Amino acid sequence: MTIQNVHDMRNNQGNKQSESVSSADTVQMIVDSIPEGILFLDFTGYVRDVNIGLQRMLGFNNNTQLSGMSLTDIISPLDYPSVKRE
User: Fold this and answer.
1) C-alpha span between 55 and 39 (Å, rounded)
2) Each residue's pLDDT tens digit, 15-72
3) CA dihedral 53, 40, 73, 75 (to 10 degrees)
4) Residue 84 CB partners (closer than 8 Å, separation 6+)
5) Are 8 and 29 in a shared domain?
6) 25: which of 14, 33, 39, 69 lies 20 to 30 Å off by Cα?
7) What string of DSSP letters covers 2-44?
8) pTM for the complete prediction?
9) In a domain, 80, yes or no
10) How far is Cα 22 from Cα 28, in angstroms, rounded to an integer?
């Protein structure tokens, strides 16, 4: 996806003159276009948002299934030592 494609996506959302896409929507479109899995956690280690790539990797249909889960609910216990808390 290129910057031009994101611009085109924004312009194709409803009436070009009267509707605008918020910055948050633009960022979400960009994040969802990335094929790698992206996970956003809060400071306590709970999932706040994921992109479509991670949903597919983990076999979930939508973001709401992952939202609110703990990171330890998602990763294998064998991987716990590699996850550092800062």
Assistant:
1) 10
2) 444 456 688 888 888 888 999 999 999 998 899 989 999 999 989 887 778 889 998 8
3) 60
4) none
5) yes
6) 69
7) -HHHHHHHHHTSS-TTT----HHHHHHHHHHH-SS--EEE-TT
8) 0.61
9) no
10) 10
